[in-house]
Write a structure and sequence with these properties.
mainly alpha; 5 helices; Four Helix Bundle (Hemerythrin (Met), subunit A)
Length: 158
């Protein structure tokens, strides 16, 4: 594999992650049951909207030829998404808050919470796949630097 062949795969995986995140955003915002909503629903709407904004620079950066800045931008977006998923959806406090918020509100709210959990699972799976491709891209980039360094041994030359 080469960086030129891995980079388009990374772009595709990022697009898939964005699609999974969009599905989660739809579950949180558009599928929210009508009527008075718990405060957690507003907080989660903010979280998914912010996550969409975090992904946009990465999606733009991987459009085109591979370069270090694109890898860096994509890596930062993946880190932010990982933290957002862990801190806002998957940790004990967040999961408990969602469960307590829908308790006693009826089956439509329980279904809403389940769709969020399902959407989060899809995002986590897609994130893991994207991170694996990102590591392959970094490995290829490091290999290029190593090969150039060994061929020219031009340390200190400009």
């Amino acid at each position: 594999m080469t960086l030129l062949s891995e980079f388009p795969v990374l772009a595709g995986e990022l697009r898939q992650l964005a699609a999974e995140w969009r599905a989660l955003e739809i579950s949180v915002i558009e599928d929210r049951p009508a009527g008075e909503s718990p405060a957690v629903s507003d907080r989660l709407a903010e979280v998914v909207t912010d996550g969409t904004a975090d992904l946009q620079p990465a999606l733009l950066a991987v459009h085109g030829r591979p370069h270090c800045e694109a890898l860096h931008t994509a890596a930062l977006a993946l880190l932010r998404m990982q933290r957002r998923l862990d801190d806002e959806f998957r940790c004990y406090h967040a999961a408990t808050a969602l469960t307590h918020a829908v308790r006693g509100r009826g089956p439509e709210w329980i279904g809403w919470a389940r769709s969020i959990r399902s959407g989060v699972d899809g995002c986590v799976s897609s994130l893991r796949s994207t991170e694996n491709i990102m590591l392959r891209c970094w490995r290829e980039a490091a290999g290029l630097v190593e090969r150039v360094g060994n061929e020219g041994n031009c340390e200190g030359e400009r």
